């Protein structure tokens, strides 16, 4: 064999090896590309998939899965029914889609009875400057002219309102004159009775969704609640706490994130929902029309046979006419699908009489069926309860007593008055 032949054979072998290596490399890169495409497409299933969520979890996160999730085992939850799957398809294609609870370990919200006992104790313990001043005045042996004025000033400072404070003290003084006594203990008892009267002991404070017969007819299901109020009063927090209250009652809840100003607002609502298996209908587009999200939420809550739909809205100042008109539109558009049973105005208890101005404009713009007095655990200027109810004719239905997930309770008039006088 001559040298030329040997070189030829070596070159041939080298060429064959190069061809084999090239073929293997091409095959590997092709495999990588197809796997990547599969992953990409699964990440599009279910909007707002939380970081780190696995594709399987995204499928679990289907709309309608809330019915499976609430009160059921994790394995049930991991197997959405056929209906769940078709819901998922329609939700993903719509402008606002229902996202899923992100966490697998569900919390058990505190029952209504247990939270009332706990929150009553919390209310009576909260530092209440109003109660302390009244206590000091009424601890005297005999009430002088200045003491009466101090009682009135204290009621004013506690946001009871000018008219109500003057009327209350006038009546107390009049009673004292008639009975010929200004015995502080009797005055104190009389004050308690009058405050109770003003706050309203027999007022029906049930949420419309909780009233017997609410949404019994299939066509009226679910009950719809819209949360409104100025910026930062606690709307989203209250929506989340309220969802827990309903879940504790065994109800199926859906929430709608009609605060489309910031994506973070929908994320905040999802975080609340995820803990108790409540799905949130949201738009992934910042600045989407909140009314259209409300419409989609109503449609999807209805399709999912939910008992209650809670729609969160963006905070807005009452003097911004366009934003107030937007609220009216949210209601009208939601009502194309379902009647709105409840509009809850969330008032920050620490804003005092300023809350009145807010309440009036919100009542005109969207209609108010109840007030949530949030942050009553703060400086406890709860007297606004009296003014709001009197001016608007709508009851305070719930009070927020802290940032904890179950720190929301039905308003309890005697506990509230005792809290003031404590
Ligand atoms: N102490 C206390 N804090 C509360 C209560 N309710 C809400 N907060 C706090 O108030 C702050 C604002 O609450 P959000 O629920 O975000 O208020 P929002 O009305 O949705 O705010 P916007 O959507 O920005 O208008 C948060 O830090 C809450 O934790 C309450 O009852 N007590
Ligand atoms: Mg909010």
UniProtKB/TrEMBL annotation:
Pfam family, one: SRP54_N
KW tRNA-binding (keyword) present: no
GO molecular function terms noted in the UniProt entry: GTP binding; GTPase activity; signal recognition particle binding
PROSITE patterns noted in UniProt: SRP54
Main location: membrane
Catalysed reactions, as listed in the record: GTP + H2O = GDP + phosphate + H(+)
Similarity annotation: Belongs to the GTP-binding SRP family. FtsY subfamily.
Protein name: Signal recognition particle receptor FtsY
